[in-house]
């Protein structure tokens, strides 16, 4: 059965969109290798490095997911003028993702997540980042230009990884302007950042984040979906709420009431890193293209199912979606 009857037409409409992505920019690094012996220096495996790879992470990966299906994308975030910042800017340029020059700043370390992969399994992750206040986008002169572009775009995505880029005052200004221009605002939240996105068109937490949003600390307990959805709506009043549930699919709520739960499309799961970026990208794009939240979730769920079958931070093209959909029909 097809994901959407008008899938080709929808992807065509998505390719004509202009979307702004605001959020934490990171560089994802991957070190692939094999480990067949233990170090004589400490009881740890010795990894023989076979390959290294760099990719756009966090907000950059959201932008890349959009660009992979033809969307005109501009990203706003903060990264350094260090060597990794140069690598990040080069990746943005390579994929035709626009980024204001002032997003790159002196005295800031580019956020890096380095994953060591041995036989398709993540052995460890090494993180580099500065204090959150160093990444605040409001310290950049690009904010005023960002505000002037809101009336010319179809949607805005806040990709919040709680690294400090997104602040409450910035969110309030952007949402107010977007509402005035009738622009879709979508949010991938990180509750621990303390930033609220009141009145957004879409909130997309995962299961753990949804529990955190309603103040539930014991995340291993019973997930009362109806109660959680109502509570999130009362606190944030989003137009639409989509909670991603991993292998259980997606839960969709409108005006605080559950309207549907979509089962996961994933058949083989190799790596879930970046799956949330794919979800928010396709949910937003479909909504901005005029689809209902149900059909937008079906497309996002289908695209995410393809992405998690790949190793590392990944994206999916329109051609892959159409091909996989044809196999299902």
Describe the structure.
- The chain has helices at residues 7-14, 59-67, 83-94, 142-149, 168-181, 207-213, 225-236, 275-288, 293-307, 318-328; strands at 18-23, 25-38, 45-58, 72-76, 79-80, 98-99, 104-105, 111-118, 121-128, 155-159, 184-188, 202-203, 240-244, 250-254, 257-262.
- The radius of gyration is 19 Å and the shape is globular.
- Helix content is 33%, strand content 27%.
- It starts with 6 loop residues before the first helix and ends with a helix.
- β13 and β14 form a beta hairpin.
- The model has no long low-confidence stretch (mean pLDDT 92).
- It is an alpha/beta fold and 329 residues long.
- The strands form three sheets. It has a nine-stranded mixed sheet, with helices on both faces. A four-stranded mixed sheet has the order 3-2-8-9. A two-stranded parallel ribbon has the order 5-7.
End-to-end span in angstroms? 4 Å
State the helical fraction. Answer: 25-40%
Order of helices and strands: HEEEHEEHEEEEHEHEEHHEEEHHH
Instruction: Tell me what portion of residues adopts beta-strand conformation.
Output: 25-35%
What's the tally of helices? 10
What's the Cα radius of gyration? 19 Å
pLDDT < 50 runs, ≥5 residues: none
| Overall average pLDDT | 92
Structural class per helix/strand content? alpha/beta
- Number of beta-strand segments: 15
Strand order of the largest sheet: 6-4-1-10-11-12-13-14-15
Q: What profile does the largest beta sheet have?
A: 9 strands, mixed
Backbone shape: globular
Please outline what is shown here.
With 329 residues, the protein is of the alpha/beta class.
